[in-house]
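hey so i finally got around to running the thing on that chain from the lab meeting. sorry it took forever, my laptop kept dying and i had to restart like 3 times. anyway pasting the input first so we r on the same page abt which one it is
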Amino acid sequence: MKKITVLLAFMLCTTLANAQQDTDNKVQFGARGGVNFSTITGSDFEDPKSRTSFYAGLVAEAFIAEKFSLQAEAFYSGQGFDIEETSFAGVTVTPSAEFQVDYIQVPLLAKIYLIEGLNVHAGPQFGFKINEEVDTDPTGDGGDFDTDQIKDFDFQLAAGAEFKLTSGFFIQARYSYGFSEVVEDSDAHNSVFSAGIGFMF
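ok and heres what got predicted. didnt touch it at all, straight out
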């Protein structure tokens, strides 16, 4: 994980340095945040309900040409899925709960501007797990217990669309899919829809 993090940092620094060599190009920094709708997909999971959480982090965008840029991000992402209550003969066997899996996500995106302000973007995303637990009382203080089922690293592909306003604010929607097995030797993958806003300084 440390080697991957160093490589990503090197790639970002190289991109920004190359962009700054041309005065016609520019580098912008910003922040973004919004809501996640995440779940786990695959034949080993019977379509669990999505967990609603949030994401928040930082953005660096380097313009390589007038309508093309590269963007690196680092952000917290609340993911996982909801567990439905199951019962047998009127007795609750499994209570409803949230399976919470939280990541630091580091995407590297290529952005193409279709018209002024509107772009589509896609690229690889690297997820580093920072928390994993089951919460039977998501709105309260209790009900948490730690688990150790999810792998520490997840390789994903992210794609989305974004519209920038002249004031520096932007709105965006994105989907990311994990190609890594979330659980060892299982057909289970992260799937996240997100929508939110941000601001470029």
